[in-house]
Amino acid sequence: MRLSSPIYKLKRRAKFLVRGNDVKLHEALNQIAAEEGFKDWSHLASNYSKATPAKEIVKQLGAGDMLLIGARPGHGKTLLGLELTALAEKINRTGYFFTLDFNEADVRDRFEKLGFDPKGFDRPVVVDTSDNICADYVIECLNKSSDDALVVIDYLQLLDQRRRNPPLEEQVRALRAFATKCGAIVVMISQIDRTFELSSGLMPSIDDIRLPNPLDLSLFDKRCFLHDGEVQIEKAA
């Protein structure tokens, strides 16, 4: 059964019903659920709270972890990164999404595509689209907050595109040290080399990460690769 709107919009409709009528929130939610063809709100929610790769990944992340997400364009790596930031509150963290690739409208549209209301999180997700994003910039932003952080950086190969920024490996080592010291979780989205599409591989691997500049990939504890709807999660050897 397809919902008429994402769950967060249905919840918003229920809140409007509460404001304009003499009904309690659970009654309004049940009314909305009935309109969608379910017996009550818990029935609706149980049908649309299915497991996703992001939910499985976030369970495996702990303080100080560095995760690398790799995929070719169009295979869902950015959406996965955004969902991880949205789920940060589930593990009592604040989600941060730093992107050098998208503007704020792009990010908002992708959150809505995932069914999340960017303004409706218990812990608001921080979205930063500054052109100045680099390791030092990210660390400075995080140092201003006392919250435990889950940080997604989009994306790896753009961090040292400006000549004034330190080399890529130096930046990743700085983020590694920060994560270890402060207990942050750092997720970095990465491009996969286009030669992968000419290979017979069913899933990219660490050897397919596009590295125009040197980088020790063993700095990442965990890796996640996506291709054609499939997701593979692995720990570094």
Task: Please give a quick description of this structure.
The protein is α/β, with parallel strands linked by helices and 237 residues long. The protein is 36% helix and 17% strand. The protein has helices at 7-20, 25-35, 41-47, 53-59, 77-87, 104-114, 135-143, 168-182, and strands at residues 66-71, 94-99, 126-128, 149-154, 185-191, 222-227, 230-235.
Spatial gap, N to C terminus: 43 Å
The amount of helix comes to: 25-40%
| Major sheet attributes | 7 strands, mixed
pLDDT < 50 runs, ≥5 residues? none
| Mean pLDDT value | 90
Q: Which homologous superfamily in CATH is the superfamily of the largest domain?
A: P-loop containing nucleotide triphosphate hydrolases
CATH topology of the largest domain: Rossmann fold
How would you write the strand order of the largest sheet? Answer: 3-2-4-5-1-6-7
The CATH architecture of the largest domain: 3-Layer(aba) Sandwich
What would you call the structural class? alpha/beta
Strand content: 15-25%
The H-and-E topology, N to C, reads as HHHHEHEHEHEHEEE
Tally of strands: 7
Anisotropy-based shape: globular
Please write the CATH class name of the largest domain: Alpha Beta
Number of helices: 8
